[in-house]
Amino acid sequence: MLKTLKYTFLLIIISIKGFCQIDPMVVEGFAQGTTYHITYLDEKERFFKNEIDSILHDFDLSVSTYNPNSIISRINSNQQNVTLDHYFITCFKKAKEVYKNTNGAFDPTVYPLVNAWGFGPGKKEKIEPKIIDSILKFVGFNLIELKGNKIIKQDPRVSLDFNAFAQGYSVDVIAAFLNSKKITSYLVEIGGEVFVKGLMPNGEKWNIGIEKPIDSKTQENPDLMIIKLDGYAIATSGNYRKFTIEDNVKYSHHIDPKTGYPTKNNLLSVSVISKECITSDANATGILVMGLEKAKVFLKKHKELQAFLIYSDTNGDYKFYETPKLKKILSKIK
User: Fold this and answer.
1) How far is 204 from 321, CA to CA, in rounded Å?
2) Start-end of H helices in the chain
3) In this predicted model, what pLDDT tens digit does every residue of 62-90 receive, in sequence order?
4) Is the distance from CB of 77 to CB of 221 less than 8 angstroms?
5) In the predicted model, is pLDDT for residue 119 greater than 80?
6) Residue 8: what pLDDT?
7) Strand partners, 319
8) Residues 191/2, Cβ–Cβ less than 8 Å
9) Which residues contact 279 (CB under 8 A, 6 or more apart)?
10) How far apart are CA 275 and CA 183, in angstroms?
11) Max CA distance (Å), the chain
């Protein structure tokens, strides 16, 4: 899934160089069909490009549906004696947790629907109600379980898609690697999902930008808000980056697992802040699917999450909803 959160990368580098004798270490590359950017301060000036690329390669071999030899692809094709690894198990358990918390709004078994609508690696279907109804019979996270180190399906057609939050989890994985190397100030961004720790050398928290939700599949949008973070992850889901248009109707890539159709509500963008990027990423997707009013109720119950929601009113103007703690760290760009 192409995500929509970006950060002011160049300004961060300029700020670091201006206030610190230690040049920042910058690692950039490609993974999971997107880009990554990592900035950290290290007095030893160690360059971790090879290690990071190796970690992300192994990560893809576990949970990428675009790799036919990955663990998740082999589970989806019902291969026997598939050995699950830590990455897959962590994703499965987190998915089950968020599935329950969001009352099924977040559901990684929508994979057959994602393919049918043309948003996955599989063949796009000609969408008809009877096609959607037939697929819905084997969509539901209650139809699949993890028992020990094995996946048990009630229907062999049940398939998993962790793309809605795998990039967020990969951010956590790289952050854990940097922690293991005793790096105390860093920013990790993969596909727009971010985790930051420590302070920039000028003593300020890292500045993260939240985009304006303008329809664009490739072009970077201007920032609407800036948020300052330390020791937190932020992930954004929106309906303006990955979509398709058929018969002059726009269809978002976020599929409602209850209806089988792309979501239709006035939420444009959901940014979730928490201690783990996997948690932020999964919940951002679930909130976007459930819609504004259910999201407000959900967020009041789940105090461990902070969120900034952008939605449109009846005139098409931007409106905002943020959880109470965010009011102190959000800055609107004029």
Assistant:
1) 26
2) 9-19, 49-63, 71-76, 86-101, 111-116, 129-136, 166-180, 277-290, 292-301
3) 999 989 999 999 999 999 999 999 999 99
4) no
5) no
6) 47
7) 311
8) yes
9) 94, 98, 168, 233, 272, 304, 305
10) 18
11) 64
Q: What's the angle, vertex CA 152, arms to CA 107 and CA 91, rounded to 5? A: 45
Mean pLDDT of the chain: 85
Give the model's pLDDT for residue 313: 85
Of 266, 265, 282, residue with least CA distance to 274: 282
Q: How far apart (Å, rounded) are the C-alpha atoms in residues 210 and 226?
A: 6
The CA distance from 253 to 255, in Å, is 6
List Cα–Cα distances, 187 to 140, 237, 283, in angstroms: 36, 20, 21
Structure token pair of residue 178: 């940097």
Q: Residue 13 pLDDT > 80, yes or no?
A: no
Q: In the structure encoding, which two tokens stand for residue 156, read together?
A: 């062999």
Task: Let me know: does 40 contact 187? Beta carbons within 8 Å.
Answer: yes
Question: Are 165 and 91 in contact, with CB atoms under 8 Å apart?
Answer: yes
Percent helix, strand and coil across the chain, each rounded to 5?
35, 25, 40
Closest CA to 294 of 332, 256, 329: 256
Measured CA to CA, the distance from residue 180 to residue 42 in angstroms comes to 13
Integer Cα distance of 11 and 33 in angstroms: 25
34 by Cβ neighbours in 10 Å (0-12 / 13-18 / 19+) ranks as middle
SS3 28: strand
Beta-strand pair 206-211/6-7: antiparallel
- Burial letters 306-330, b for 16+ CB under 10 A, else e: bbbbbbeeeeeeeeebbbeebeebb
Q: How many residues does the chain have?
A: 334
